[in-house]
Amino acid sequence: MAPQFEASSSLSLPPDIFNAMPELDWFSDTTDIFGLDFTPTIDNAIERQLNGSFPAEDCQNIAAEHDGTCDKHVNDSAKQRHAIFQRSLWLWRPDANQNAFSEHNNIPMNERSIDMGASPHQPYLPSLHMEDTLSQDSRDRILQLVVKTAKSHVSIPSFPSTACLDTLLKVGIAKRLETDAWIHPYTFDSEKTRPELLTALIAAGCVCFGIPRVSKTGLVLFEIVRVALNQLAEEDNSVIRDLQYLQACMIWIDVTAFCGFQRKMQIAESSLQPLVTALRRTGKFDHVSYTKTRPCASDQGDELEDKWRRWVEDESYKRLVHHIFEHDIYTTIAKERQPLISYAELSVPLPAARDLWLAPSADIWQLVYDTKRFPSPTSDTISLRDLLANPEMVHCLSDLVDLRIVRTAHLSGLAAQCWDYFQQAKVTSSVFTSSEDPSTKLWMQSRHQKLYQSLQSAKRTTHTDVAVTELFAELLMMSLHVSLDEITRFAGKCGEAEAHRAYQTLQPWSQTKQARIAVWHAGQVIHFARNVLPYQLRGADGLMVYHAVMVLWAYGMMQRDAARRKADGKEPRESTTSSEPSTFLDDMTNDRTNDFLLMNTGRPCLRFSNTESGTESQACDIRNAQGVMAVGIAVLEGNLPNEIRENLPQLTRSLCELMKALGSLK
Fold first, then answer.
1. Among candidate residues 263, 282, 301, the one where a domain is terminated
2. Per-residue confidence (pLDDT) for residue 375, from 0 to 100
3. Last residue of a domain, one of 282, 302, 334
4. Which whole-number Å values give the CA distances from 444 to 7, 227, 258, 434, 548, in the listed order?
5. d(CA 656, CA 53)
6. Which of 133, 179, 252, 503 maximizes the CB count within 10 A of its CB?
């Protein structure tokens, strides 16, 4: 199901953030995945402290002295920034005969028991009590899958015990329950589950365990799952209509799409299309594929059990569809690519309430259903498309639906509409488009205002949800007021000429109210990123934090350059330090915020604290490029306490290293 990638020696293709993510040698530091060091003790996990990235005292410095023309400075800086992207040793260029198993041809699996207390992520939900236990037969099926798929490419002298695999399996299922819960734990039967899905869940459990060696084991197993699923679809086309097959595909795409290794990320991104196509052609995006199943007071015994299981299967498809749509939109925003699913085609009914979904038995499902508010005749058919047509319906939904999924889906639908607006804005701003067309201008202004108001309204409904949802809402409001494409081009994505052209566009933008609104929302992204639970800021949300930091950095660079132009190299350096009161963009709204947004008064700053010394937070002027990047690094690293940078998830480490390199430039 994944396309073949052709190697290219051309250096003309524009690099992007994902060029700064490694592929080769990611597995070279260990050869014994399930060996004696498989599970380090908790003492080893916390014996090293988080290293600071930048000295906190540097955060008050604003601008370097001007020693040449601004154009020369911009060109020199652009050349350096482009070099940071270009000289990376991690740019994936496939070698001849490179394949899924060429990186790890020897994995002796001398397993040692996994201690759940050793995981810093606390990956096991205390409330999860699954009756199912992995059997020896299921373990053998998993081993057969691994051996059959890896063939002679990987040596496997031993394999983990049944108890070890059962623990990792439950961790993998538990992590799916933390957000939209699209794997049903209480009808899960390992004896009747495809080995591909079992292996995918075990691999997800490894990645979520939080110990580098265990996480890397999960990535190896995901390679095996990916190849096995492709082979299975080639041998039997009917599996693409099987729920377990689709769930296994989604699990490995979910994890590897933001794992930080470029080869895996590219393949995962391209493999989402076959999954979307399979669900679309099965009709699972349309409400006609779903039946209305409700328990009756007279239902009991096998009849009630059968009805419950039919209901669970329907709900599994609903939740899978909404999860894929959310993943697609996150990928669209984080990686700036076209979405694969249209919000207008999703007439699938909204998923049922979480307590109904997680009812451990048919009897409890029936009891919980009886306590729900009786819905209107049409409430069972309300879909995301209906919510986007009439946003006020979000406040009037029955308690039979999962409100957290509804709010997230509604926000994702608005994100898709924002993407449509971005594309239209690019067309209308083309040099070949007449800029004097009043109807086009009016429509764009009206659409922009409507989207912004809708996002503000949606943001108010998500205040009880996880911080990542609020972070996403703030990022969308930020992106309505700035072109992220221009920001990344200014950062050196496409070379010196494009960086200079983007500078010419961003300089006048930086003096507008639109720019101040953008950096305000970027600061709010930082604010909510700090509130994300530990070890959760490591996927698309990590890239969102990076985008917000880059907007703050670019605005600060524009403001600093404007100050250089105004000073014209004649005023002493001390005069560049403003005596205005600080306006903290990463705090909640206050009077100073309104003064900054409306009248451009106040000194826009971020809070920076040295986590190593424990000192109080200091004001970091956003015209200090190094300080802004230090704040971004501190947010990402702070979400992974007691971890040194070498042990951070690969995506987080790559982002931190890129921000550090860009921040070090003058």
1. 282
2. 59
3. 282
4. 41, 46, 33, 14, 24
5. 9
6. 252
